[in-house]
Amino acid sequence: MLERIAILILVLAVLCLSVAAWDCNRFITVRYKILSGKIKKPCRFVLLSDLHNKSYGKENERLLSQIDRISPDAVLVAGDMLTAIKGKGFDTALSLMRQLAVKYPVYYGMGNHEYRLQLYPEQYGNIYERYVAGLRDAGIEPLINQNTYLPAYNVAVCGSQIDRDYYRRFRKHPMPAEYLTKILGEPRADACQILIAHNPLYFEEYAAWGADVVVSGHVHGGIMRLPILGGVLSPNLSLFPKYDGGRFELGRASLLLSRGLGTHTIPLRIFNPGELVVVEISKEDT
């Protein structure tokens, strides 16, 4: 009996490792449709999140080829394109951003890894300054608690950068009701307001602020996905997080949560391939 159990455990381990090797090196395309009575004409965005310097083929050619096939009106970036590790660079992330910026407008919201590089220069040196300078040289101005307006579509895109307290492990740190208005200002109520918010844990607060569409990442789909139960582990080390990936609704607000494209501390994706997310916003009949 024990021998059979040992064989079963070994078979399951080999299966999981095989799936991990497969899922860590592929991505799928996921599409979401949003209806809004505020927009002037339909628009299509590609959402990238949590690349962590991953490259799908040389110079990310597989990822770029798929984005070109989708032909978006713009690219939304929900942060963590690189990884905050001492001595590591950002060439892969910056190369992708440069190639995208040649063809598409890119709206870049910061993740906790970009923010960490900024906060701790004594640990990471000038990586943050060099990376942001590279983005700006490519024509990408990071949206750090800033809102920008796209008049052709009557869409506003805001990038949030919340404090490190809101990335604590094991529990959700309370966010005061006025906090988002204090750092972001008022939402654009007369436009379809998109909020790029790396951490999805605060979806209720984002909706209360006034976001119509929230695009997030951070959770990596829960690293491993199980039938019915969904994602297993969140970055704050909570089991089976509520917001693990996919679409969530709260009133008239929608959260589109990417499962990300790469890995970092736990370099695994099991039954959980990377995601390239397409967001199509169409006119709602009123």
Please supply descriptive tags for the structure shown above.
13 strands, alpha/beta, 286 residues, five-stranded mixed beta sheet
What does this structure look like?
With 286 residues, the protein is an alpha/beta fold. It has helices at 2-23, 61-70, 91-103, 112-119, 121-124, 127-137, 179-184, 203-209; strands at 27-36, 43-48, 74-77, 106-108, 146-150, 155-159, 192-196, 213-216, 225-226, 230-231, 246-250, 253-257, 274-283. It has a six-stranded mixed β-sheet with strand order 5-6-7-8-12-11, covered by helices on one side. Strands 1-13-2-3-4 form a five-stranded mixed β-sheet, with helices on one face. Strand 3, helix 3 (91-103) and strand 4 form a beta-alpha-beta unit. The longest helix is centred in the N-terminal third of the chain and has 22 residues, at 2-23. The mean pLDDT is 91.
How would you briefly describe this protein structure?
This protein has helices spanning 2-23, 61-70, 91-103, 112-119, 121-124, 127-137, 179-184, 203-209, and strands at 27-36, 43-48, 74-77, 106-108, 146-150, 155-159, 192-196, 213-216, 225-226, 230-231, 246-250, 253-257, 274-283. The chain has 286 residues and is α/β, with parallel strands linked by helices.
